[in-house]
């Protein structure tokens, strides 16, 4: 008689476990320490933190105070030009004026020149979005689909390059600095390139690809308030033209506040100015061409220019808000007052937003 062998059922395959590893970290068994808060421990922590912040704040204040700054408001001294620009029919006219000032002592080191504007609301929503980043990258885009309107195309359909309200209101005063030395007038050499951010110059802005810029911008037209097309912004340096122009790039980085300043030039340290600016008499020659009808959003900023000469530290300017923020907190009004020390003289708003 044959023995019948019973076949056992196959065991089920082991299913992978969904539980985390049995480790102290994943099973939340790590040792912990809970500090015992007492009056002595809390007060000592506050005093140590306050002493550290106070030390850092004092160091930053000393560094900020080492920055030399000279502020010259030429809007009042060029009042005739301001009156000329108040009439919108004179938008394409230039007015020349000069401002004299004296340096009582040498300004040593790297010297930077800024222009400042007050009550110019670059943070207005319609103004901020009025640009085409794709166009500024040199791409062939349909301007009609951008936010550049009404500064996108002309009545005949010709696209503007660059388009938008920001580009159209480009600061276009020309400022030259002269040094009066021994009855002779010497023009201070100023650097107009190398002033913008590296990321802006090499990443955010590109010229259209072509064998020359004039052909790259063929079929386009300059913004209505520009006196030159984009490919002729700098007639002395061909590499500083088009969307890669430093003045244009700096202007396109809009400010968050109505009072702001932008870097305009750096003093080239050659000949008489190898150490900086020597003491003596200087003259600003200003080609005043502010457009009083810019955007219709802001009726004028022709009386809001403030020019500054700065010798900067590692903080790049007089920054009292940074040192104050490192000090132990006091009252908000004091912090705001200290933080506005580099702003220009106050003025009343001359335009209103739509």
Automatic annotation (TrEMBL):
Record GO cellular component, one term: Golgi apparatus
Keywords noted in UniProt: Glycoprotein, Membrane, Transmembrane, Transmembrane helix
One BP term from GO: phospholipid translocation
TM helices/strands, residue ranges: 37-64
Principal subcellular localization: membrane
InterPro entries assigned: CDC50/LEM3_fam (IPR005045)
Localization (cell): Membrane
Signal peptide (residue range): none
Protein family per UniProt: Belongs to the CDC50/LEM3 family.
Protein name: Cell cycle control protein 50C
Biological source species: Chloebia gouldiae (Gouldian finch)
């Amino acid at each position: 008689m044959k023995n019948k062998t019973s076949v056992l059922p196959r065991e089920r395959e082991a299913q992978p476990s969904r539980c985390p590893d049995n480790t102290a970290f994943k099973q939340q068994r790590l040792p912990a320490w809970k500090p015992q808060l007492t009056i002595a421990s809390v007060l000592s922590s506050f005093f140590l933190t306050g002493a550290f912040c106070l030390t850092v704040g004092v160091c930053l204040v000393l560094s900020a105070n080492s920055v030399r700054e000279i502020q010259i408001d030429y809007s009042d001294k060029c009042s005739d030009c301001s009156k000329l620009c108040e009439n919108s029919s004179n938008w394409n006219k230039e007015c020349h004026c000069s401002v004299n000032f004296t340096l009582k002592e040498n300004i040593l080191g790297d010297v930077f020149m800024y222009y400042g504007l007050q009550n110019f609301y670059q943070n207005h929503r319609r103004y901020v979005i009025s640009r085409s980043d794709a166009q500024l990258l040199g791409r062939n885009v349909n301007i009609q689909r951008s936010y550049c309107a009404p500064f996108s195309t002309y009545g005949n359909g010709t696209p503007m390059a660059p388009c938008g309200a920001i580009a159209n209101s480009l600061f276009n005063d020309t400022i030259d600095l002269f040094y009066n030395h021994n009855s002779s007038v010497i023009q201070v050499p100023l650097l107009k390139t190398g002033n913008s951010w590296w990321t802006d110059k090499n990443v955010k802005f590109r010229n259209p690809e072509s064998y020359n810029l004039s052909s790259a911008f063929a079929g386009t037209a300059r913004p209505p308030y520009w006196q030159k097309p984009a490919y002729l912004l700098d007639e002395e340096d061909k590499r500083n033209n088009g969307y890669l122009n430093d003045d244009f790039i700096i202007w396109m980085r809009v400010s968050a506040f109505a009072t702001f300043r932008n870097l305009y030039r750096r003093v080239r340290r050659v000949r008489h100015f190898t150490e900086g600016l020597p003491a003596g008499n200087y003259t600003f020659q200003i080609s005043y061409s502010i457009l009083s009808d810019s955007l219709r959003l802001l009726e004028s900023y022709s009386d809001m220019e403030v020019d500054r000469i700065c010798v900067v530290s590692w903080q790049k300017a007089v920054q009292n808000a940074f040192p104050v923020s490192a000090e132990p907190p006091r009252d908000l009004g004091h912090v705001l007052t200290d933080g506005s020390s580099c702003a220009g003289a106050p003025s009343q708003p001359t335009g209103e937003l739509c």
